[in-house]
């Protein structure tokens, strides 16, 4: 049974205006950690598929447990919602809405969050997280804006050929650090782009990135391309990048 302390948390619904998104705005849900104090400052985890991260990934409950029981430094979570019908168009690097989404993220979302909430304003304190194509777009945001992001959580990243081609053209990536996992039962997963061996494409992306100096915390585990698998690895992913208070 879930400890009732983990359910007492603050999640704020918010909306950020945008000139880069066709709809002119984007819905957010913002987790504020226990004891949140505007006088202090906090690391921020930016989650693609925000609604899914909160509802299926249970990221707010996991965060509260890590903070209260494991001494992890309090942090903010920003879940960025997505229209599933436009998801591939926004998240895939060759999608027609991708460039606008990436620019929204860097030029509008980050300044909005850092003006409104007690967020730290250095790249080492910003973490991008995503599942499948959400992991892909997180990587491409960091590649496009290395001054803003250099820490990525990619849960079964959908690193299709177009994504690998962009990574292959990147220069030195020794400032980049990734937590990457993939399920061993994802070797023939059907997507809207066709059937892919996610184990193979994650291995290939790992090798590509490491060849350019990136650090990867990489794991292959029993699991399918579902939230039940990813949820189990969210605690480890967060602990990779967040400090433990002494």
From TrEMBL:
It holds the Pfam family Esterase. InterPro entries: AB_hydrolase_fold, Esterase-like, Mycobacterial_A85_antigen. Gene3D superfamilies: alpha/beta hydrolase (3.40.50.1820). This is Enterochelin esterase-like enzyme. It comes from Paenibacillus phyllosphaerae.
